[in-house]
Amino acid sequence: MKLLIVNPNSSETVTAAIMTSARRAAAPGTEIVGVTTKGGTRNIDSAFGDYLSGAYMLRTALEAVALHRPDGVVLAGFGRVGLDALKEALTVPVVSIAEASMAVACLLGHRFSTLTMLQQFIPYQQELVRAFGFEAKCASVRAINVNVEACVTERARTLAELEAEVRRIVTEDRAEVVILACAGLCGYDAELTRLAGVPVLDPVAVGVKVAEGLVALGLCHSKVRRYALPPQPLEHYL
Questions:
Q1: Distance CA 212, CA 215 (A)
Q2: CB 3 within 8 Å of CB 32
Q3: What angle do CA 38, 17, 184 make, to 5 degrees?
Q4: CA–CA distance, 159 with 156 (Å, rounded to integer)
Q5: 53, 10 Cβ separation under 8 angstroms
Q6: Span 114-137, mean pLDDT?
């Protein structure tokens, strides 16, 4: 089995963190190929960053799919970042780390909270929960105040801020599961689970395991209606 892991931002630093989590989660027989979006922004921290990076991500992902011929694709950005368009274009399973993490969180507790970076990104994340249909299961959306790349490079500061917010999530919001809602937050899950006493999900690790499961079961997102192939050949759009 081969999975393509697509980082929708243009930071190689973030891609390296994503790939560490992806390889840690992948089964021994799974080949993992990572790609960094060519263009767009290094930090997807707003709707502006999402929309700007989406088109670049699509081109990068389609080129990588043509080259590597993966059995499944993991979109390693905790947002929309072109997800619907990528599902339209491809006939192999496309797994969003955001959607997969929320779905799995529902299996692990009554309600979950998402914990992202930057306070101003909270409304975007709230809309994301609503768009995926998990609003009733979401106890809260919280944030630290560290941007995506700094979450990878400033680990002591990031862990301290995450720990403080996770404790508030458990005691004040009464969530039973916490999702680290940013690919830059990969690798903090084990320590936070130990500290908080509740499951804390690394979204990339979850996305990889969900993708492996879909491929193993021979399943793909439906190509009827919403994710039907675009009516023109893809090259007419590019």
A1: 5
A2: yes
A3: 80
A4: 5
A5: yes
A6: 94
